[in-house]
Write a structure and sequence with these properties.
Layout: H1 2-9, H2 12-39
Amino acid sequence: MAFWLDLMFGNPIGLMSMIVIFSTFGIISYLMWMFVVKSAPSNNE
């Protein structure tokens, strides 16, 4: 476990790749949330 933590966060390349992965996850989550909100039936009559 210590090896993987050092590999991911111990050098700049690993840190940047983890930032890219978490940013991608955040963007995908936001887009899915917007899709759910916009797909919900509205109460406008």
